[in-house]
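Re: the 622-residue chain
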Amino acid sequence: MLQLIDVILKRGDRAVFDGASLTVHAGHTAGVVGRNGVGKTTLVELIRGRLLPEEGEVLRPRGWRLAWLDQAVEPSARSALDFALDGDRPLRTVQAEIAAAERAGNDDALAHLHVQLEDVGGYDAEARAGEVLHGLGFGGRDFGKPHRDFSGGWRIRLNLARTLMSPSDLLLLDEPTNHLDLDAALWLETWLARYEGTVLVIAHDRDFLDAVCDEIVHVADGRTALYTGGYTAFERQRAEALRVQAAHHARQQGEIRRIQAFVDRFRAKASKARQAQSRLKALERMERVAPVRARSPYRFEFPNPKEVSNPTLSLDEARLGYGETAVLWDLTLRIYPGDRIGVLGVNGAGKSTLLKTLAGEIGPVGGGLARGRHSEVGYFAQHQMEALRLDRTALQALDAGPGERLTEQQARDYLGGWGFGGEMVERPVATFSGGEKARLVLALIAREAPALLLLDEPTNHLDIEMREALALALQAYDGALVLVSHDRHLLRECTDTLWLVADGGVEPFSAGLDGYAEIRQDRRGRPTRHDQRDRRRQAAERRESIRPLTKERTRLERDIDACTEELAELSTVLSNSATFEHATKEQIGEMLTRQGRVRKRLARTEAQWIELQERIEELEAR
């Protein structure tokens, strides 16, 4: 098993880990989650041995072979296939020894080495590497292309291929799905299901974590906590733990106030002095229960367009592509205000070409494309992060965008909702992480209040809390949305129509995300027409039965949030001694009455939510 025992690690004055302990059993897959900056990557570095704890131990079985995903590797002249094969170090060692024996003419050594080559799987190594590369989205023509000729995201895919080709007992993957499309992420899930070793994977993709993980390691406040099951199970357990912690904290604070009041009252009274001192010592020995922290640092929205055109955008017998070369043919499509469209398709099918055309970055090769009078586009793609002016600050980038000028305080408040607080708004973009650049681009797009949002893999580099905030903002957005994403949770939460880009066309896909995953993971090939028809019918029936329930659930969740916020405000006011000094008895009575009413409404709404959630889960299970 893999163990951390009371690990302490500091960076300057900050304790990254302060007594962290963890046990992951052999053969298990553990997902590592937590806010950005809490130490997830540091945990991997400790396990690799690249960092040593100041106190405590990191233990793993002697002889365990490690493989890990490097996010940055120097560009190489090696072909994609050779680069992937280089991950199999035992193979490369035997091959090098065979080459040396051949040069020396040592036939005895060659006979022995060829046996070793068979033992390390050398005779089918290229086939295995080809399977990995195909699974990660590389075509046969890419195999001979030099590593250095690929873009940054594709190089990371090659790094992942090389990692998966490395024989290992412990596999450490830091954000492996960041630069994958949906098909590659589905393939990786299948590969990990067959892997027999132990896996630690840092990821922010909820569905991926649910599919591959036996347990979740939550990193927070310098500690690690282990939860059984995937991310959904972790969320439920974590929510219950926070509820219990909040209740314990409230009870303890009441006990502290009661003891302190006794001490303050009787400290000077001779007959009670000993009791007062005893309780004071008990108060000092009491282990404090920490208050529950705020759920998310992100508070933002996509403003609704002031005016829209119906339809917003039309394609008529259009051919899309580059120059004279068409990638997609004979497309007749309409996008209307309020449409929520998710785009599916294998790598290279033309998803990005479709979005670039809709955004106006490229024109159609042929046919018609018409835009409504009010069809302003907000377009997010990875290349826009690279186009940010690195010498500008977030404040300067916002000021340079279209729209009315904001005061500095308004700009700070706006950027604060996107997670750019304090001095961060004055830092140059060059110092930003990938997630921070993505958030800044989304913030700039939202400021424009577009009628049509086109998002091409917006969640790369975003943590789970930001993804949740993005999903909530998109749900409340009234304009049209077209979304390409490998994050199935985001697709489920924010789209109700799917388009499949395949075989040079774009068609509605009614089998749903689960149906698409089944098709892509089915090794037998394409499903029969009967299977497709049956899946479509079942998926349509399931969606229709669940749709009104999910809308009601969303309404209840908004009510719960509103009640929770109102209770927090009332508690803050009522816990302030100044309130009782300046407010009248009637005002205080009104606040206490309102607090009681809100508590009852919250309890009633939560009970309704639980009942509704159980009904939804029952229908989904069927």
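The two ends are 37 Å apart (CA to CA).
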